[in-house]
Amino acid sequence: MKPIEQHSIEQLFTEARTYSHWQDRGIAADTLRQLYQLAAMGPTSMNAHPGRFVFLTTPASKQRLLPALAEGNRDKTLSAPVTVIVAHDPTFYRHLPELFPHMDGAEKMFADNEELSNSTAFRNGTLQGAWLIMAARALGLDCGPMSGFDNGKIDDIFFAENGWQSNFLINLG
Length: 173
What we know:
- By secondary structure, this protein is α+β, with helices and mostly antiparallel strands.
- 46% of the residues lie in helices and 14% in strands.
- The protein has one domain (6-172): NADH Oxidase.
- The protein has helices at residues 6-14, 29-40, 59-65, 71-79, 96-99, 106-111, 114-138, 151-158; strands spanning 51-56, 82-88, 143-146, 165-172.
- Strands 1-2-4-3 form a four-stranded antiparallel beta sheet.
- It starts with 5 loop residues before the first helix and ends with a strand.
């Protein structure tokens, strides 16, 4: 493998900043699908892929998010073309027979150890959020990752039915 070009390094790392102001342009659905497909290819331990992404693309979906946001994050989130909730599934291990089939018992290892399951889901879900940022930068999108919200409220609003847990948000534009 050879190193990538300097302009790519700049786009991904040295010129990448956290953005808070956005152009009044949307992001095409095809671009969001490509973004997800690229981020999904990033490695995680045991190919566990516990990360879950919720793409908020409409004003109505972002209004649902507002009660959980800190005051300083509301305007920039409402003005961003897309906001992504980066979350993780603490029961990711249910998919290990398909994602990591060459290790018998991988699912049981996590099912029988809640602490291991939670820490693995959080760590690797965070990593997948970073892969999403890198994929977004590679596709020419600006990113505004942020905390400054109430995780419990987001989890109640968006994840009450599936048990996922929010980690951080990313505004995209």
